[in-house]
Hints:
By secondary structure, the chain is α+β, with helices and mostly antiparallel strands. It contains 20 helices and 16 strands.
Amino acid sequence: MNQLFVNIKVDREERPDVDSIYMEAVQAMTGRGGWPMTVWMTSDGRPFYAGTYFPRDRHVGMPSFREVMRAVSAAWHSDRDNVNMQADQLVEAISQDIPSGSLPRAEQLDRAAASVLGVFDATFGGFGGAPKFPQTPVLEFLLRSRGVDAAIDEAISVSLHRMADGGIHDHLGGGFARYSVDHRWLVPHFEKMLYDNAQLARIYLWAGIELDEPRFLDVTNSTLHYLTRDLRHRDGGFFSAEDADSEGVEGKFYVWDRDEFDEILGGDAEAAARYFDVSSAGNFEGTNILNLLQGRDAPPNLGSIRARLLDHRSKRVRPGLDDKVVAAWNGLAIRAFAEAGAALGSEEHLATATRAAEFVLGHLFPDGELMRSWREGETSVPGFVDDYASLALGLFSLYQATGDPQWFQAAELLVDGLGRFERLNGGFYTTSDGADNLIKRPRDITDNPSPSGNALAAEALLVSSLLSGDSNRRDRALAALSASGRLADRYPSMIGHHLAVARSVDIGTKEVAVLGQDRRNLTRVFWDRFRPHAVLAQSADASEAIPLLAGRPADASNPIAYVCEGFVCNLPTSDPMELARQLEIAGT
């Protein structure tokens, strides 16, 4: 490599713009994508050859990596005209823009939901076959579409139960691995990502409330506890990930053998082994991944068993920690903790969300320009559209959960910054108008495994418009959602979060304003259901800082609530039951 090329290693978490451009080149050239990814390009950045995995040695007809490098080098030196022509063709292919369609409406959204349900695995949950990803944006779309199809509740419930049963779920320490290599959720790729766990904690929260599944709320709390215990900086921000490997072996930190169970648990070993599917033969390369897929009864002292196993595991060499603090992913975490804190009445979760917000704003947004990531006092590059939008949504949720206007004001500043990413005909680029001059300005509308910047920006603008009354922001949100219109019928699983937000628009957005010193009995009504198409503004008194509250009379001794649409409100009420009735009548 060093003899033949100038080598550039890209961290796709720090530079998603670069990664997305050259991943398109790989897909255009090979018909598929993935990592590791290797791209050969001219000195001005135009790709001319690309691929994913190349074996160290020639294998089953595949040339070795060395053979590929020598062939590419030879072509560069002896056939430069053809190389340049190939580069021009590749750049032209990946520069084709996906034209916007129209805003997905009820009929199209219903067809998209039916298409997703058509690939639902009724036995093990999830959608499609192996490898199997949680596909949280798709689950959120279905959760926002409840009532459209009787099969939706089953798809959500079975998927979340089976994921929680599987080896993809850490049954001792909480949290989820990135994906399962099999269709049963048994064998994970053991890497744990902040963005996955933040999204899953939130979807388990709202599914648990909507489907009346207490187990899902337990999963929410254990996942959030994992994040605070193992992925949090001492000052409150959240790190990016834990590696799959420890001591150079994938999964070594997590797997068990039967002898360990006997030694650690003594007389409880037999019951624990049955419950967690642990045997002498093993279920993974001679070892055991803990799982509940066998459906056996829990031992009566399960809490003690888990504590002893977790204590023993904590003494092993931990997987490597990716200690970057990424703005977009912290936005997802702040949103999860804030909503869980409000919905579950947890001051601890709210405090965690607050500390994370203070950390990110203090370290990544000190001068009015958001940075992508922070590590050990150093920031990387200016933030991308998903950083601005995701953090804004997290701060909007924190404001709605606490009533502290500083979070609303900070979120509004971030929404203002979205204009630097906006396209003339609607929607958003990944990079700002002052970013590096790459071979194309990337634009991402794919919501998998996490919501795209375009979908997040649309939702942030929509929430902002509901709290501020700014109709222009609503129009811009709808234009961004229209970017997914042509994909809704063909590839709905690719644009789950676009469809989720579009569903909320189609249902009908609402605003709820609550004023008064002791307003908890009223705000609790808002948080006792999943209401993604409504916003909550709350304050002790009429606050000019929050347009939805401005000018509304309040009585310190008698809290009052308004249910509104387009800032036109129903008669106010101080009765929680009446507020609940108005919300149900309003369809929220």
